[in-house]
Amino acid sequence: MFAPFAAWLRREGVPFQEDAAIAPHLYFRIGGTVSLLVTPASAAQRRGVLARLAADRLPGLVIGGGSNIAFPDGRVRAVVVLAAGEEPVPPVLLPGGEAVDVDAGARNQPFLAWCAANGVAGLEFLSGIPGTLGGAAAVNAGAFGRSMADVLLGAEIVGEGGAVGRVDAGDFAFRYRDSRFKLGDGALLTLRLRRDPGAAEAIAAKVREHLEYRARRHPSYRLASAGCFFKNPPATAGKASAGRLIEECGLKGAVAGALAVAEEHANFLVNRGGGTFADLQRLEEEVRSAVAARCGVVLEREVIYVSLDGRKY
Q1: How far apart (Å, rounded) are the C-alpha atoms in residues 302 and 232?
Q2: What local confidence, expressed as pLDDT, does residue 238 receive?
Q3: What CATH code would you report for 92-204?
Q4: CA 41, 76, 254: angle at the middle one, nearest 5?
Q5: Domain parsing of the chain, residue ranges
Q6: How many CA atoms, within 13 angstroms, populate the side-chain half-sphere of residue 73?
Q7: How far apart are the first and last CA of the chain?
């Protein structure tokens, strides 16, 4: 199935591996192998790979920083494209100064440093959220009362059949920690984000404040984790956060194999070393069942899973 695509990658000089381990590329460090792991050397090369992948209608997906996803323990028959390993493309402040265009493969923290240096405010909520801008947009990442839905104006995408085009924010169908790009088809190439004017010192100070807050309340980012694992219950339900509900069930420190509920924040599941997808699923079900029984709330997973045939779910 993948031989013609692999041959095309060789002709184009695109780096890739066959039957490659995926876990080293994920924050969770969980997963087996993938049929093809493609590591484009530039944003332009990535654009060509994604267009060809869509045109060939092969099972495939793009991973940004790998911060919010877990793969199964076996062999995933799909093409996985890594979007964050290339030479970074500088963001562009558009004429008029009200918006900025940024590559979807740009990592959040370096982008925020650029924002501070260029007076681009309004995006400080991304401080401490690992991964890339494209991944943040796809999952509608957010914190401190804001999310990507508040700042995204549009995007350039690879759509069905490999066609490249532009969409506006409405095409994302944003919901809480969700968009149509989270589990659906289509790959993000560039994003257009709203820019609020601000002073460099104030932007940098807000970024530091958010990072310090996370450092005090979250497990160390040196631990293998995907961040908050469950979505918070809707505010209309009048329920506490997912982390508080899990803590009320006495589950801090609960383990399943090498996976554990973090002591620092109960909505973080951490891989203590050698954890498997099966461990993760067991701990997920234990937590969900306990919260449902005690609190009457069925927690919804925020982290993306990948099936053996390369589908996100």
Answers
A1: 9
A2: 64
A3: 3.30.465.10
A4: 105
A5: 3-82, 92-204, 220-305
A6: 8
A7: 23
Q: What b/e string do you get for 89-108 counting C-beta neighbours within 10 Å, with b at 16 or more?
A: bebebeeeeebbbbbbbbbb
CATH class for the region spanning 3-82: alpha beta
pLDDT band at 237 (very low <50, low <70, confident <90, very high): low
Q: With 70 as the cut, is the pLDDT of residue 207 above it?
A: yes
Count the neighbouring beta carbons within 10 Å of the beta carbon of residue 199. Answer: 11
Would you state the pLDDT for residue 8? 98
Flag whether pLDDT at 236 surpasses 60: no
Residue 220 has pLDDT above 90, yes or no: no
CB-based burial, 109-124: b 16+ in 10 Å, e otherwise? eebbebbbebbbbbbb
Count Cβ atoms within 10 A of the Cβ of residue 285 and give its class: 0-12 exposed, 13-18 middle, 19 or more buried.
exposed
pLDDT, tens digit, 9 for 90 and up, residues 249-266: 999 999 999 999 999 999
Whether residue 112 contacts residue 123, with contact meaning beta carbons closer than 8 Å, is answered with: yes
What count of other Cβ atoms lies within 10 Å of the Cβ of residue 237?
10
> Are 149 and 140 within 8 A, CB to CB?
yes
Torsion, Cα of 219, 278, 258, 230 (10° steps): 20
Q: CATH number of 220-305: 3.90.930.1, 3.90.550.10, 3.90.78.10, 3.40.190.10?
A: 3.90.78.10
Q: Would you tell me how many other CB atoms lie within 10 Å of the CB of residue 57? A: 10
